[in-house]
Each structure stands twice: as C-alpha cells, then as structure tokens.
Amino acid sequence: MSELHKLTANQLKQEYKNGKTTPQGAMQALLERIEKIEPKVKAFAHLPERCLAKRCQAPLTQKIDRFEVPGTFLHGIPVAIKDNICVKDELTTCASKILEGFRPPYDATVIEKLRNAGAILFGKTNMDEFAFGSSCENSCYYPTRNPWDTARIPGGSSGGSAAAVAADEVTMALGSDTGGSIRQPASLCGVVGLKPTYGRVSRYGLIAFASSLDQIGPITKDVSDAALLMNVIAGHDERDTTSADVAVPDYIKSLTKNVKGLKIGIPKEYFIKGIDPEVKSAIEIAVKVLTDLGAICKEVSLPSTEYAVSVYYIIATAEASSNLARFDGVRYGYRHQGEASMIDMVANTRGDGFGAEAKRRIILGTFALSSGYYDAYYLKAQKVRTLIKRDFDEAFKKFDCIITPTSPTAAFKIGEKTSDPLSMYLSDIFTISANLAGIPAMSVPCGFTKDNLPIGMQILSKPFDEETIFRTAFTYEQNTQWHTRKPKL
Amino acid sequence: MKYYPIIGLEVHLELNTESKVFCGCSTQFGSAPNSQVCPVCLGLPGSLPVLNKTALTYALKVALALNCEIADFTKFDRKNYFYPDLPKSYQISQYDKPLSKAGWLDIETNGALKRIGITRVHQEEDTGKLLHKEGVAMSLVDFNRSGIPLLEIVSEPDMNSAEEAYEYLTRLKAILEYLDVSDCDMEKGSLRCDANISISTDPKKLGTKAEIKNMNSFKAVRSALEHEITRQTGMLSEGSRIIQETRLWDDNKGITLPMRSKEGAHDYRYFPEPDLVPFIFSSEDIKKVADSLPELPTARRKRIIEQYSLSEYDASVLTQDKDMADYFEEAVKLYNKPKSVANWLLSDIAAATSSTVGIKQLNLSVGRLVEMLKMIDSGVISGKIAKDVLAGMIDTGKPAAAIVKEKGLEQISDDKVIENAADNVLRENPKAVEDYRSGKATALTFLVGQLMRHTKGKANPAIANKILIKKLGAS
C-alpha cells in the first residue's frame, strides 16, 4: 500500500502533477488510515464520510497538472475542519451536547475559500467543548489521544486537528486559537500550527468563544503547508468587520532559507518557574541553531507577562458568557423537554447541555461583567491588555521576532489535570499573550523529551508580519529533522 | 399642597431603510413569518453583524435635526438578557458612548414656547416578535422584525403635563417625517413610546416614577398620562407611597395596571460589542449629513408665513404634516391664492383624512383640486356646491367637471331662470316680502335661502341677490 497518507499537501500536489496518484487515491489512503488508527486516536468528532467524494466539485480521478490558478491551490487536498467552524449542512457542534444535531445552513468564509481552492473537506475534528480547554478532554464525545502516546492528551482545544495531522489521518487541518488552542496542541503533537494576526483571517462562521481573541489558522505537517493554507484562507471579508483590509502577501515567497541578521528576542519572563527543564533546553538548542545560521538572538523583557493569564480569563470568559447565551434551546440544537415554563426550559437546557468547564467559564464571565464588578474586572483587564500589547510594541522596535517555548511542558497524562482547572489554565501561559496583543504566533517542532514526546517552539512577530515567522520557521525546519519524525501507532 | 407631574419620554423608532441594520435582509412589513431572515438576524452560531451605513446616516440625521451633539467616538455594546424573541440573547445597542447626546426640541402649548431636552439618540436593533395562539400552550416566534434598525430617542424629564407630552410627540413625529427616516406608524409599531412619570411636591425634584408602556397612539399616551397624574396625585394626597414599577395602559378601560415591579434595576451586563469596530465621525462626515438635511417644520412654518402671508395658526397646522405642506406649496404654484388653498386644505380636505389615510392616500391630486378652485372662480359652481363636488371627487376619484356634470351641479347664472325662481319665491312668501318692505333687512337673507332651495343651491348667489332686490323694490 502506498504511503499517501503521510505526505504533506505540497508533496501530494507533486504526486498529482506527476500523475502518480489522484485525489481519489489520496482519500482512499487516508480513509484506510483512519479505519486503522482512529479507534486509538479519536481525533474526529464527525468522521469524513466515504461518499464525500460526491460532494467535492473538483474532478477527483483525473491527473492534475496545473496548480497556478487560484482555484486550484488546494485541488484535491483533504483538509479536516475543527468542529466549531460552520460547514453547510454538516454537523457543527463545538463538541457540545447543546449543539446536538446542529447543521448550519451556511458555510464559514474559510470554508468557502477552501471549496473555491478545490480542497476536499475531510471530517470535523474533536475539540474541547466550545474551545474551552487545553487537553481535548472537555469534549462531549470522548477525549482525543496524543498519537505519540495514547495515554496522554493531544493538547487543546484544537487537539483533534493536531492529532489527526500528526497521526496522518488527514493531510492538513484548520483549528482555532483563542489563547493557544492551535499552537499548544501543535506543539504537543509535533506539528506546525499558526495563529494569524487578529483580523488576518475572517471569523465569519467560526462559532465564537471570545470574539476579540479568536482566530482561525492552519495546523499542518510542515511550515510550507502552513504557508499554502494561509494563502487560501487569509484576507479581508466584508462579512467580518474585524477582519483587516490589509493586503495579503504570498506566504510561499517568504519561505526563504535565510535568517542572516534577523534580530530575535528571547523574553526572560518565559524561562522561569514551572517550565520543564527538557523544554527549556530544547528551546535553548533551537536558539543556538538559529544563531549559528546567522540570527542575532538577545534577551528581551515583556514585563506584563505575569498578568496575561489573569487578564485572559476575565476577557475571554466575559465574552464567552455573552457569546454562549444564544444557546437557549429555542431555535436549534438540544432542548430539554417537559417544562411548563419558558424560563425552566432555558435553564434546564443550559444546565444539561453545557459541560462543567463551559458552565464554569460562563459563570466566571457573567460575574466579571456584573454591575458593580465590571470596572474592577473587565475594565481593568482591558487596561492591562493594553499594557501587554505595549510590551510587544516596544520589543518589536528592537526585534524582528520573539522566540519562546509554546508550552511549559510536553503532553501530560489524560486525567492528570482535570480536577485542577487552574493548573490546566497554566498550560496556556506562553500562548495567551499573542491573543491579547493580537499578534501572529506559530508553533514549530523543536525536539523531543526523553519519553519521545514532541516539544514546540513558538515564534511571534508584529501584527500582519506572518512573513517573518514563516521565514524563521522555515529556515529552522529546513536545518533540523524534527518535523520528519512520525509517531508509532 | 401642589403636585408637579414630571414626564420623560422614550421613543423607539424603526428606521425605514431597505435592509436590516446588521445584515442584508429586507425590512418589508407584513411578509410571511420568518421569510426575511438569514444567519445574522437569526443569531445563528458563527454569524457576525455588519453595520448598515444607511441606518447610521439616518441616525445622524435625526440626531442633528434634534440639535444633538454628535460623538466623535462611538461604539456598540451588548445588552444581555434572555428572551425567546432575542435570538442572540443580547441586543446590540449603545451604552456609554451613544452616537449623540444633549439635544433639544421646542414645543408650544397655550401659545408658550418650551424647550424639551433630548438626553440622547442612539442606534440599536429590533427584536423578533412572539405570536401567541389562544388556547395553545406555546408561542411562536417571527424573526422578520429581528435586526430592523431602531433609534432610541430619550427625552429629559422636562414635560409637566400630558398635553406637553402630546405636543412633544407631535413635533417629533413631524421632524421624523420631514427627514423621511421612518413610517412613524404607532399602530404598526414603527414608532413606540414609553413614558416615565412621577409626581413631586417640589418642581425641582423627581418623585418615584412609574414607567408606562403599551400605548398605541399619541392620544393613548396623553390619556395614559392624564390617568396616571390623577392616580399618583390621588395616592400622594392620601399619604400613600408610590412604588417604582412598570404599568401597562389598557386603552379600553382607560386605566394603567401594574406589569412588573422594577425595584432593583435589571443587570444587563453591558460591555463593548467585540464583533463591531468602534468608529469615529469626522467633521466632514457630520457636515455632509447636516448639509443633506431637508427644511424642517419650524423653518418651513416661518417661511410659509412670510412667503404666503398665512396666519401663524394655519402655517403651523399645515407644516405639522409634511405631505399636507408639500401639497399646499404645489397647489399654490398652480393657483396663486394661498389663503384659499389653505382654507380648503385645513377644513374639508383635512376632515377627509385620518390617522391611517393621509392626504397622499386621498383620491385628490393637486391638479384636480386646482381645477375645482378655478371652477369656483369662473362661476361654474358656487363655493357652497364646491363642498359637495370635493366630497364627490374624494369618493370617486373623478375630476370636478365630471362630478358637476353627473350631478347637474353647475351654477345657474342665467337671469331668466333665476327671475322665474324669484317670482315663485316672492309669491310663496308674502310675509317675508312684507317684512322686507317694512324695513326688516334680514328677510332678504331668508328669501335668498328660499331661492337657493328652489334651485337646489345652484343659483349664483350674487345674481340671485341682485334680482331679488330688484324685484322687491319694483312692485
């Protein structure tokens, strides 16, 4: 049997071009792979259907030799979609009971763009309910497993997308990132994940967690694939007024193997207590690799870092409490039956339909917005958010990008942190600031622990300067071998 | 002890933009339930609002016409509460940075001018509508109304009588109609008004207020306030305490009844709407809208008084209704007797209109009216007969000439015909003839009336008069 499931999108396109295989062949290989290993990984909330080919407009069985036309960028490339992105007529449930059976009557903008680029929509991936979590354990279906060690979590909330890509169940995937939900699972699963600048990718059709922080982004097997997928999904959208009307460069052109003279800041606040020594040392070695390639790496200070987690859990939960208020059982999804009054129906629908973490965050956010507390919490948090952003503005006056670990530890065991929400929240300590500041950040594989668990390096840059991230990440990747390792499943 | 009513009004106005405020759905009234909806106005997960620029321009127009200060920075906020007609479980509204504040509107009661403060004008979205079927233990929701642009126009508590409130609403409606931003139809719900009223023994202090809802016409607002003033004054003079509450007006019974007590204010947990970027008005933006404002009622009234030498009263009534004033000015262009046109408009024509049928809906084009007025001038019909002709025109939509012909209403100016009629009248009324000759001038009026009766009102009154005098003097 061929190894088509292992190929990156760029490699697969080459195979198509050479006439060695067709999209039909690639899908076949992936479906066989899923059949074999999905019971172990549980990456999907809703599996790609076998009859999926019928719905793809692209010809699937012919030789494809032209990828230059925009409509063929992803021709025949299977892409898995996180379950919080609306796909017309397909189950889109945010891994929540409250959205049981919900099939949106419309496509998210990114889905339209994928369809127009000829991609094959390949299943909906598992996640923490409404993206609330860092372990994929808060799914109403089942926890997803880390392909490198199925007793461990894959990270979250886009754990399904990261695990599916890492386990070669799909070629590439979309995730969403509110506080690290793309980068942390990418790091823990040994794949590439990019959270673009806030406003770079349309949020239309992404079921909101925290509207001022959410961004959709790629999770891929390597940096080139991330650039390819970004070329398709980035850009201004009239349906999302927070999407920026800023020209989108060709990210593939920024894949140059050159970091000579690149100024990289290493924030000292990211290397203190709680960080796993193995992670710390992997990052130090990665920085050394980049230095050897000609980058200038220096220490930088981001003094407001210590407030990021607190600020995040006020702003994100406040917005979430309002965003999730629409799930009341009146119009769609789950409705608790048997009540005589409207108020009881809404209360019991929400009581029964939301999981524990969703309820915890709704209550936190409701409290933060309540009259008498608003100034002390929400307003104060917004002010500190501005300080965090200013730290980065200052740092980027001197540096082209910043490098940190993506996560303080490698993947932890399933169940290890479920009883301690605070320690779970700290999994995102290095990723949250990028969302608060609205800046782009990517996680790239940069090593393994002695237990053979992947470690990720985070690269951050100025707003709308994903190109510097691509350049740095690609140069690093091409000079290391981490991205070529595969989990044994 | 003297009691002072203190009244503030909150008006919700549906703007007549073609599409909704945050999506492209139609705002057409009266369509089949849930036929004008999309993911955005249904609040489906993942959908996002995009502000309709026309709605914003309309809001600016109203704010400027009400002399408000326009904010240089404004934003939308979410007002959070659960209700089945509110699909997102929050309403996009404006909280601490409304697009405008601190305006005013002048009203006039009993000949005295009074300035009523406008606290703020802000933009928000309408909710859906619950439909209750009698005898069925469930409600249905129609989301066609969800997302229709609303303006909230809040007045200062500057009114002290039901009459002032009525006058405020009348003036406000006139301005809104001149701006052509809303149908202003209370029955259809495109203009809604809630009133806050308290009674105080100190005119400078507010008493405990009641909020009155469910009034479907300006008259209902006035009646409800009159009722409420009596009720609250009665309670206070008995020494009872007024409780802060919302009361519903029952138009049939003519009373207000308590709805729900509102001791502690609702916590709507307002916060800035993260899905819409805040915006900043430049002075050019504001100037552009200001320059586009049409002539408003006050200015028009002044001009009409000067230009056409109408009385203050006539001009004021004419300009209160934009269509009426437009009609007037068009008619005067074709027929340069402003006073005569105004008289017809303010008497017979105004009487034919109602709250639902305005002058535009009457079967009476300006051209047709002018034709009729010219027929009076040329003596074809008398002024008295013209009233019947006008009624016929409005009833049938036919031109004056056709009505006159059909009903045989031409004025009789033929001396011979009138002389015959006069002879008959004189023969039949010897007593009146005698009276007249013995110096009782009023007898002539009676005889003219009799002559008109004989000719079914068609005799030219001037000729009839002349002939009667001649004949009475002759024998």
Give a short synopsis of this structure:
With 489 residues, chain A is of the alpha/beta class. Chain A has helices spanning 9-17, 23-41, 109-116, 159-166, 183-189, 223-233, 277-292, 308-323, 342-353, 356-369, 375-398, 421-425, 432-437, 466-478; strands at 44-46, 78-82, 120-125, 172-177, 192-195, 215-220, 263-267, 296-300, 401-405, 441-448, 454-461. Chain A has a domain at 4-260: Amidase signature (AS) enzymes (Alpha-Beta Complex), CATH 3.90.1300.10.
Task: Give an overview of the whole structure.
Chain A: It catalyses: L-glutamyl-tRNA(Gln) + L-glutamine + ATP + H2O = L-glutaminyl-tRNA(Gln) + L-glutamate + ADP + phosphate + H(+). Chain A: The active site is at 82 (charge relay system), 157 (charge relay system), 181 (acyl-ester intermediate). Chain A: Belongs to the amidase family. GatA subfamily. Chain A: Its EC number is 6.3.5.7. Chain A: This is Glutamyl-tRNA(Gln) amidotransferase subunit A. The complex is a heterodimer of chains A (489) and B (475). Chain A has 489 residues and is α/β, with parallel strands linked by helices. Chain A has a domain at 4-260: Amidase signature (AS) domain (Amidase signature (AS) enzymes, Alpha-Beta Complex), CATH 3.90.1300.10. Chain A contains 14 helices and 11 strands. Chain A has an 11-stranded mixed sheet with strand order 1-3-2-4-6-5-10-11-9-7-8, with helices on both faces. In chain A, β10 and β11 form a beta hairpin. The longest helix of chain A is centred in the C-terminal third of the chain and has 24 residues, at 375-398. Chain A is globular. The mean pLDDT of chain A is 93. Chain B starts with a strand and ends with a helix. In chain B, β12, α3 and β13 form a beta-alpha-beta unit. Helix content of chain B is 41%, strand content 20%. Chain B has 475 residues and is an alpha+beta fold. Chain B has helices at residues 53-65, 162-179, 218-237, 283-292, 297-308, 312-320, 322-334, 338-352, 366-377, 383-396, 400-407, 415-428, 430-437, 442-454, 461-474, and strands spanning 4-14, 69-70, 73-74, 77-80, 90-93, 100-109, 112-125, 129-132, 139-142, 149-155, 191-200, 210-213, 245-250, 255-261, 271-272, 279-280. In chain B, the strands form 4 sheets. A 9-stranded mixed sheet of chain B has the order 2-6-7-10-1-11-12-13-14. Chain B has a 3-stranded antiparallel sheet with strand order 5-4-15, with no helix packed on it. In chain B, strands 3-16 form a two-stranded antiparallel sheet. Chain B has 3 domains: 4-285, no CATH class; 293-407, no CATH class; 415-474, Orthogonal Bundle (Arc Repressor Mutant, subunit A), CATH 1.10.10. Chain B is built from 15 helices and 16 strands. Chain B is elongated. The A-B interface holds A 84-86, 92, 94, 99, 102, 104-106, 108, 203-208, 210-212, 238-242, 318-319, 321-322, 325-328, 330-332, 340, 342-343, 346, 366, 369-371, 374, 378 and B 39, 42-51, 78, 80, 82, 84, 87-90, 137, 139, 141, 265, 267, 269-271, 274-277.
